[in-house]
TrEMBL record, chain A:
Rieske domain: residues covered: 239-330
Region (Disordered) residue spans: 1-46
One GO term describing the cellular component: plasma membrane
Membrane topology: Multi-pass membrane protein
Record's protein name: Cytochrome bc1 complex Rieske iron-sulfur subunit
GO molecular function, one term: oxidoreductase activity, acting on paired donors, with incorporation or reduction of molecular oxygen
Membrane-spanning intervals of the chain: 56-77, 89-112, 159-178
Cited PANTHER family: CYTOCHROME B-C1 COMPLEX SUBUNIT RIESKE, MITOCHONDRIAL (PTHR10134)
Origin organism lineage: Bacteria, Bacillati, Actinomycetota, Actinomycetes, Micrococcales
Location within or outside the cell: Cell membrane
Automatic annotation (TrEMBL), chain B:
Name of the molecule in the record: Cytochrome bc1 complex cytochrome b subunit
Compartments it resides in: Cell membrane
Transmembrane segments: 47-67, 112-133, 145-165, 211-235, 256-284, 326-356, 376-395, 415-432
Domain Cytochrome b/b6 C-terminal region profile: 243-438
Residue ranges of domain Cytochrome b/b6 N-terminal region profile in the record: 14-242
Coiled-coil ranges (or none): none
Catalytic activity from the UniProt record: a quinol + 2 Fe(III)-[cytochrome c](out) = a quinone + 2 Fe(II)-[cytochrome c](out) + 2 H(+)(out)
Keywords from the named record: Cell membrane, Electron transport, Heme, Iron, Membrane, Metal-binding, Respiratory chain, Translocase, Transmembrane, Transmembrane helix, Transport
Record GO biological process: respiratory electron transport chain
InterPro entries documented for this protein: Cyt_b/b6_C, Cyt_b/b6_N, Cytb/b6-like_sf, Di-haem_cyt_TM
Organism: Serinibacter arcticus
Enzyme Commission no: 7.1.1.8
Gene Ontology CC: plasma membrane
Coarse class of the protein's main subcellular location: membrane
Length: 361, 559
């Protein structure tokens, strides 16, 4: 146990020695030092190392062949003809590339492990901190520089420098950010293509819909007539998509002020989830529940599309509908509130009568 | 030097050319034989680096054929795949189809690129776990932890922007969700949405903008930070696992040239090779199966890439109630909390952890020898707790898949996860910490009693004991080499003259946290304990040196 007593005489290192971890305790075991090096088979026998060399060469040759195979695959298989040929091309080039790379990689690693010297080496570490003289010299260098700049006791110069540097980027940033938002007219969120008399059409083909086509229990994905081919088609569609369901009028709970928003058990609701905007597309006929596939907000279509589960708070906005002179389903007006996810100012838009003039812009 | 062969002559000439111009000799002398320690877990960071290189290479290939435009076109009637003929779509989507079916190797490169992206993120996360659980982030490496953390965040940005480029139904829905989250930001939400999309969602600007971010801004930042990350590794020298002969004052391993050049260089080819074979054989993101973006359809069971699932799960778990209207303005906490607050807290905790731990230990020294996770039970527990929270969110992000797979109701799964999100990390912390302490006790036992040999002898007294074989010095070192960390002690609240010390309150808080970290601990066996246990005979109860039994009171002395 002579080692143990020896360690007891080790004085605790100075607090300033940043590398002294593990040396603080007085009563501690000494580090036994590196274990003796064990030789590998290939170090000891010429035959062993010859065999390793052969393995490595085989791997390099395999890589070589595979890479050539990849190039051959490029020429051999045309693409754009059949799915099979696309697959053959992908597979042959990919395997050629992959095995070509893998061969080199495994060969190099094997070489390093089995043939290169595996005698462990030791480097010393030094603390990151510069020594005191260097630190002092650094401080002096900065001081000298500051003196040379003649900035000391010139507050106006300092202030002018800081202000100029702070303001200069604005001439870059303002045009950048200013242009990013287009016309910045965020009240566009409020309006959709729906309006009095706009006919309901089938998504995606645009066919018009008569109420008698809508059987009880069926679900219809609906867009406004005139959407297809219109100018801002995707933006308008993203707001205007509607899901229409017909159910037995006795199953339907309707708020009195919305009594004339449905047509003989046919109700239409915005398909844009009030959570963060996914299309609410999964309808379960028995429960009349409408499920958003993104985060599973569940809305009860038989009861004002109110939220029954999930992260959405608000009911889906209802599209008031009726039937026009020609017997097609039409909207009575636009939605009476903003569709889709909540925004800070959405309440501002709720239940405002929307003038055509406002809508025009 | 006598140069004999023409090759050697040429090499000498080249060396001279560079040395006389950039002083190459000094650099080679400095770096060629630099020692790096070896461990499989050090490969995780390398995998991240190499998959990034693969991303750069395959990404460059893709830029040659991808058209970042949202102009609507009709897919040609004679092109593959048949299902897309004549369909209206953006040029971005059309060019993705075209490069997949009409460019030789195009589909391969897309698939390698996507697999490399998944591997990149997976290796960053596991690399980060290695660094965390071994304490490699301690001084002087805190800044490099922050650099690595920033690369993780940028990796999320790279993955998200790339995933959104093909403009298919899935990626469009991802953008739709982003739009919804952005709109929920108080006051400026609507304007932020306009700023991102150049007007109303989806607009015609978002794909070109994402493209610039994806192929220029984000990769350039990642590349710059990777350079900083690697320079700092060289400056600090790599940490090493504890072992005989290794100390805080040395680094034990193999020289850069030739061993690491061969191993690390070879490993790049291995990573590239594996990714290429994956790209050749495993289909990923076959966008023609979903179709071009259209705001109307969406498939159930569609999943984002795995590294985005935690956000999806967070959004799914949140109940909808906390959306309020105050003075006519809407505050959607049902979106802000899961999409901004919770990830913000988890990520901030992760980024700030090294500084927190440094404050708690009060240790100002450098640490170059890694911890065995069991020897720092509280840190290990905290790490597992954070990880548990992330994993629960990821699982919650797949709750629909879990529901259909196991035939459960989504509502009940969601409720279970809501509960687990709060209880899981706490349980994980307690269990992990207990487990670490138990492992440390086992280590002590092994040091004090040696290996069991299975050989039983009988004393003259009639007593049976099992013979234990003492550990060798080398075996023992791994179990006793670490330094115990004890809670900080604070002095009295008043100085000698009875005047209250100014920063006393802060010191109390600090010591409380320090107690939380280090009060429960098992200290390594000391030589005198070992000697005492031999003196008392092998088969006696070991004395446990746990502080909660009041054995240790000495305060730590540190600079
Ligand atoms: C920094 C790490 C990167 C990550 C995590 C990443 C991730 C992704 C992902 C997930 C995709 C979707 C692929 C698909 O269609 O299935 C993608 C697409 C793409 N990436 Fe990257 N990428 C990275 C770097 C780069 C770089 C450096 C470039 C160019 C130099 C690039 C160019 C592209 C292009 C052009 C596409 C669109 C091609 C397509 O969708 O078919 N990427 N990226
Ligand atoms: S978008 Fe519908 S639940 Fe989240």
């Amino acid at each position: 146990m002579s080692d143990l007593t020896k360690s007891e005489h080790v004085t605790p290192p100075g607090a300033s020695d940043p590398l002294s971890v593990g040396e603080r305790e007085l009563d501690r075991f000494p580090n036994p030092g590196l274990p003796e090096h064990k030789h590998r088979l290939s170090d000891e026998s010429e035959a062993g190392s010859k065999r390793v060399e052969r393995q490595i060469v085989i791997l390099f040759v395999l890589s070589l062949l595979a890479s050539i195979g990849g190039v051959v695959g490029y020429f051999a298989f045309p693409v754009g003809v059949t799915l099979g040929s696309v697959q053959a091309s992908t597979l042959s080039i990919g395997l050629g590339l992959g095995v070509g790379m893998l061969g080199i990689g495994i060969a190099a690693v094997h070489w390093a492990k089995a043939l290169m010297s595996d005698v462990e080496q030791v480097d010393e570490r030094h603390a990151q901190r510069s020594d005191d003289a260097t630190r002092a010299a650094a401080v002096q260098a900065l001081k000298d520089g500051a003196d040379d700049s003649r900035i000391a006791r010139r507050p106006v110069l300092k202030g002018a420098l800081v202000s100029a540097v702070a303001v200069a980027p604005l001439a870059f940033v303002v045009p950048l950010v200013g242009n990013l938002g287009g016309d910045w007219n965020v009240s566009k969120f409020r309006y959709t293509m729906w309006g009095p008399g706009v006919r309901l059409a089938r998504d995606p083909d645009g066919g018009l819909i008569r109420p008698e086509q809508v059987t009880i229990g069926s679900v219809w994905h609906v867009i406004p007539d005139g959407l297809l081919g219109s100018e801002h088609m995707l933006e308008e569609k993203a707001k205007a998509v509607v899901l229409m369901v017909r159910m037995n009028p006795t199953e339907l709970t309707e708020a009195p002020e919305r009594a004339d928003w449905s047509w003989d058990g046919i109700v239409a609701y915005s398909k844009v989830c009030t959570h963060v905007g996914c299309p609410v597309a999964l309808y379960e006929q028995q429960t009349h529940h409408l499920l958003c596939p993104c985060h599973q907000s569940t809305f009860d279509v038989s009861d004002g599309a109110k939220v029954v589960f999930g992260p959405a708070k608000r009911a889906l906005p209802q599209l008031p509908i009726t039937v026009d002179d020609e017997g097609y389903l039409v909207a009575r007006s636009d939605f009476t509130e903003m569709v889709g996810p909540s925004t800070w100012e959405r309440e501002r838009y709720t239940d405002l009568p929307v003038s055509d003039e406002e809508k025009a812009h | 030097m006598s140069t004999t062969t023409p090759l050697a002559k040429a090499a000498g000439g080249t060396a001279d050319f560079f040395d006389t111009r950039v002083g190459a000799g000094k650099m080679v002398k400095e770096f060629a034989r630099k020692v790096f320690p070896d461990h499989w877990s050090f490969l995780l960071g390398e995998i991240a680096l190499y998959s990034f290189v693969v991303l750069l290479l395959t990404g460059t290939f893709l830029t040659m054929f991808f058209v970042p435009s949202m102009t609507e076109v009709h897919y040609p009637e004679d092109a593959l795949p048949v299902a897309m003929r004549g369909v209206e779509m953006s040029e971005a989507f059309a060019s993705t189809l075209n490069m997949s079916f009409h460019v030789r190797g195009g589909l391969l490169m897309r698939q390698i690129h996507h697999w490399a992206a998944l591997l990149f993120m997976a290796s960053i996360v596991t690399h980060m776990m290695r660094v965390f659980f071994t304490g490699a982030f301690r001084k002087p490496r805190e800044l490099n932890w922050v650099v690595g953390f920033t690369i993780l965040i940028l990796g999320l940005a790279a993955g998200f922007t790339g995933y959104s480029l093909p403009d298919d139904v899935l990626s469009g829905n991802g953008l739709r969700i982003t739009d919804g989250v952005v709109k929920s930001i108080p006051v400026i939400g609507s304007y932020m949405s306009f700023m991102i999309f150049g007007g109303e969602f989806p607009g015609t600007e978002i794909i070109p903008r994402l493209f610039t971010a994806h192929i220029l801004l984000v990769p350039a930042l990642i590349l710059a930070l990777i350079a900083v990350h690697l320079v700092l590794i060289v400056v600090h020298k790599h940490t090493q696992y504890p072992g005989p002969g290794r100390s805080n004052r040395n680094v034990v391993g193999y020289p850069l040239f030739p061993v690491y050049v061969a191993k690390a260089g070879g490993f790049f080819f291995v990573v590239f090779g594996v990714l290429a074979i994956m790209g050749a054989t495993l289909a990923i993101n076959s966008v023609w199966a979903y179709g071009p973006y259209d705001p109307s359809p969406v498939g159930a069971g569609a999943q984002p890439d795995w590294y985005m699932l935690f956000l999806e799960g967070s959004l799914r778990l949140m109940p909808g109630q906390p959306e309020f209207v105050i003075a006519g303005y809407t505050i959607s906490l049902n979106v802000l909390i899961p999409a901004v607050v919770i990830p913000g807290l988890l990520f901030t905790a992760l980024a700030a952890y090294p500084f927190l731990e440094a404050w708690v230990t009060g240790d100002k020294r450098e640490h170059h020898v890694l911890d065995r996770p069991r020897n720092v039970p509280t840190r290990t527990g905290v790490g597992v707790a954070i990880l548990t929270a992330f994993i629960i969110l990821v699982l919650a992000g797949s709750n629909d898949i879990l529901a259909t797979h196991f035939n459960l109701s989504i509502n009940s799964i969601t409720w279970v996860f809501r509960f687990l999100f709060f209880a899981g990390p706490v349980i994980a912390f307690i269990v992990t910490k207990r487990l670490c302490l138990a492992l440390q006790r086992r280590d002590r036992e092994l040091v004090l009693h040696g290996h069991e040999t299975g050989r039983v002898v009988r004393f003259a007294s009639g007593e049976y004991i099992e013979v234990h074989q003492p550990l060798t010095d080398h075996e023992r070192w791994l179990l006793v080499g670490h330094e115990p960390v004890r809670p900080l002690e604070i002095g009295p609240g008043e100085n000698e003259r009875g005047v209250a010390r100014p920063a006393y309150k802060k010191a109390v808080r600090r010591s409380k946290l320090s107690n939380f970290f280090f009060a429960d601990r098992v200290e390594p066996v000391t030589p005198s304990e070992l000697a005492a246990s031999h003196g008392h005979g092998e088969h006696e109860e070991i004395e446990s040196a746990e502080s909660n039994e009041g054995l240790l009171t000495n305060a730590s002395t540190r600079g």
